[in-house]
Each structure stands twice: as C-alpha cells, then as structure tokens.
Amino acid sequence: MQNLQPFHTFSLPVQAQKIVEITNIDQLKQQWAQCQATQQPIVLLGQGSNVLFLRDFQGVVLLNRLMGIQHTQDDNFHYLHVNGGENWHQLVTWSIQQGIGGLENLALIPGCAGSAPIQNIGAYGVEFKDVCDYVEVLNLSNHEIFRLTNAQCQFGYRDSIFKHAYATGYVIIAVGLKLCKAWRPVLKYGSLVELDKSAVSAQQIFDEVCAIRRSKLPDPAEFGNAGSFFKNPVVSQAEFARLQQDYPNMPHFPQADGTVKLAAGWLIDQCGLKGYQLGGAAVHQQQALVLINRDHATSSDIVELAHHIRQKVAQRFAVWLQPEVRFIGEYGEVNSEQAIA
Ligand code: FAD
Ligand code: EPU
C-alpha cells in the first residue's frame, strides 16, 4: 500500500494500493488497460482538493500531471489551451502577469485545470463556464479524444456533464479558455462591490480576492480541508417564503429560474456550530461551511461531523444539506448523501 495523505487536501491517514503520476496520454491509456485486465478499481485525482477518502482505496490512484499551456490570440480574444494537470491558481497568476484578464475572480482555488469543469468551479461572481471555450476529453474505452463545447458541458451550479453522462470512463485531458481582450471587471460579490469600476485593474481584483479568501478559508497546509463541504441549497420560492417568515435576515440569492439559493454557511452558523469539534474534525471558526482536519482526524470523524451538521440544520430549517465534496470508498466513488444520512 502507498500513503495517500500527501495527495488529498483533507490529509487523512488513508492509503491506496498504488499511486501513479500520469504525465502523458499513452501512459494513461496503458494504466487504464492494465487495471481493466487485473480488475483493479481506478480513481483519477488532480490535487485531491474536493475529495473525502472514506477508507483505504483498494485500487490504483492516477494523478493528473499532464502539463503545458498554449496561448494564441486574435483581435478580440486570448485563447488558452491548458493541459489538465496544470495548477489552477498558477494558471490564474500567470495569466494576470501576461496582462490577460478574466480569471482574477477565480484566484486561489486549489486543484488542477482539468478538474475545474467538473463542478464548474466558482467564486466571487465568476464561474468556470464564463471563461470556458471547450473541454477536451479522452474516452478510455475506445481511446477517442474529442472536444465538448461550453453548451455541451451542461454547466450548472457546482454541476456539469462530467458528474453525469461523462462521470466514468472519461478523463478531462485539457481545457480551452476564451478571454475577451475588452476586459470588464466583475465586482458583484462581497467587498468587491466597493472597488471603483472605472479604475480597477485585474491585478487589484486578484489581490483583493486572495486577501478575502486568506481571511476566511483555512490553508490546507495548516488544517486539512476540501473547501465548502456542502453545496449552498437551492429551494423553491414557496419554501424560501416559509423560511423568510421566521428568519427575515437570512442571506439569499434569487436565481434566474425563480429558485432561491441559500447560504449553507449561515444555516450551520445559526445552529451554533462554528468551532464545533467531533473527534479530530471541526467546523472552521471563520467559515462554518468548511470542515477541517483539526487534530489528526480520521475519515469517520469527518463523516460523523457532517452527519451531525446535516441533522441539526434539517431539524431547525427543514433543509437537507448535500455534500459538495466527492466521497471515495474502498472501490470507488460512493453516494455522499447516503454516507452521511
Ligand atoms: P480532485 O479533488 O482531485 O478531484 C475531484 C473529482 O474529480 C474526483 O471525483 C476525481 O475523481 C475527479 N477528477 C479529477 N480529475 C479528473 C479528470 N481529469 N477527469 C475526470 N475526472 C477527474 N471550489 C470552488 O468551486 N470554488 C471555490 O472557491 C473553492 N475553494 C476551495 C478552497 C479550498 C481551501 C479547498 C481545499 C477547495 C476549494 N474548492 C473550491 C474545491 C476544489 O478546489 C475544486 O473542486 C477543484 O476544482 C478540485 O480540483 P482537484 O484537482 O483537487 O480535484
Ligand atoms: N455566512 C455566515 N456564517 C458563516 C459562513 C457564511 O453567516 O460561517 C454567511 C456570510 O456572511 C454570507 C453568506 O453566508 O452572507 C455566504 O458566505 P460566503 O460569502 O463566505 O460564501 P459561501 O456561500 O459560504 C460560496 C462558495 C465558495 C466560494 C464563495 C465565494 C459554495 C458551496 N461555496 O461560499 O466556494 O469561494 O461562495 O464566492 O457555493 C467551494 O466551493 O469549495 C468554495 C469555497
């Protein structure tokens, strides 16, 4: 067995039968074929910043380390073809240094570029779908490589086709980004609204986003975590009206389709759970939506804490939280909601 602790940001004491760094497509095909022949389960990882390993993984973990960035441009756009193993934050930093705006609101999100489309990463008013031109995919069963357009990816809030029809047997090997040269700042969210729209630069937004994130979110190097543990719940207008009667100050975000997004962090916070500790796992003091490996947590500590939070929030608000983090069991991904039910 090999130690998985350094390869996922929760830093839990778990192992895998084998861990392999994938640096080219042929190697990826070979590893897949080998595992098929020996009937070993496979899990693909970028930087492991959105996963919870429930126990030792009885199979092979492939680490996406397909590197390389190509930059082209025309009169109106910059085009970046980014291989899947590139680090997302380094890509954002590099683009700003090159004078290419558009990714600054997505600074400091951990993980690989090839993982960004899967849950359509988002922060501070921008989502991956806003900058995505195409996603390049390898079909492992027939070795076909094809591109999905932005529309074909079916992006939604923390959702895409890569969690559904293309969830197994496909690997994202590269992403194509299209960034408009007529750059416009996105200053919709939080303290960004205070910046001067006519004078602000992409670098200033990048700096502000990094500063806000550092003040709220734990650095996985200090306390293991996987960012927001739960998704923000999206409820019907009627359900929101019911909640608002009792909680008039509840933060809420009306969606284009008439539904309303609630703030899971606020719901958890209202239950008095900030800082709450169960075994080695705890609710982060600065952001209740983040669960941390406070002190040598085990996978069970995190699962029990998530169960406790989900029950408390449901008892108080009749809203059932769903994990954002992907749960990996002994042989592959498992249903995360069932695991904490
Ligand atoms: P991993 O965790 O390695 O993988 C995630 C899932 O995708 C797994 O199921 C894996 O099997 C699968 N997978 C990985 N690579 C591929 C591939 N190439 N092809 C097919 N399947 C693949 N997310 C946000 O959206 N917004 C935020 O603001 C944000 N902030 C965060 C802050 C912190 C401190 C942390 C720790 C996480 C945060 N996240 C955030 C979550 C995380 O950064 C993103 O989900 C990120 O895209 C995960 O990338 P990864 O490479 O680590 O993916
Ligand atoms: N809030 C509280 N208490 C808390 C946490 C939040 O009252 O402990 C309130 C805040 O005051 C605010 C609201 O809840 O009114 C929303 O909080 P915040 O702005 O911190 O954002 P979030 O909804 O908790 C989401 C994403 C983050 C993303 C930020 C910024 C999800 C699940 N999470 O968090 O993404 O960085 O917005 O855009 O959508 C991630 O996905 O891993 C992640 C970190």
UniProtKB/TrEMBL annotation:
Pinpoint the FAD-binding PCMH-type domain residues.
Answer: 12-182
UniProt keyword list? Cell cycle, Cell division, Cell shape, Cell wall biogenesis/degradation, Cytoplasm, FAD, Flavoprotein, NADP, Oxidoreductase, Peptidoglycan synthesis
Which Pfam families does the record cross-reference, listed alphabetically? Answer: FAD_binding_4, MurB_C
Compartments it resides in: Cytoplasm
Q: Which GO terms describe its molecular function?
A: UDP-N-acetylmuramate dehydrogenase activity
Output the InterPro entries linked to this UniProt entry.
FAD-bd_PCMH, FAD-bd_PCMH-like_sf, FAD-bd_PCMH_sub1, FAD-bd_PCMH_sub2, MurB, MurB_C, MurB_C_sf, Oxid_FAD_bind_N
Q: Which Gene3D superfamilies match?
A: 3.30.465.10, UDP-N-acetylenolpyruvoylglucosamine reductase, C-terminal domain (3.90.78.10), Uridine Diphospho-n-acetylenolpyruvylglucosamine Reductase, domain 2 (3.30.43.10)
Q: What is its EC number?
A: 1.3.1.98
**Catalytic reactions on record:** UDP-N-acetyl-alpha-D-muramate + NADP(+) = UDP-N-acetyl-3-O-(1-carboxyvinyl)-alpha-D-glucosamine + NADPH + H(+)
Q: Where is the active site?
A: R158, S228, E324
| Cofactors demanded by this protein | FAD
Record keyword Cell division present: yes
Q: Pathway, per Swiss-Prot/TrEMBL?
A: Cell wall biogenesis; peptidoglycan biosynthesis
**Stored HAMAP family:** MurB
Report the family membership.
Belongs to the MurB family.
Function text: Cell wall formation.
Q: What name is this protein filed under? A: UDP-N-acetylenolpyruvoylglucosamine reductase
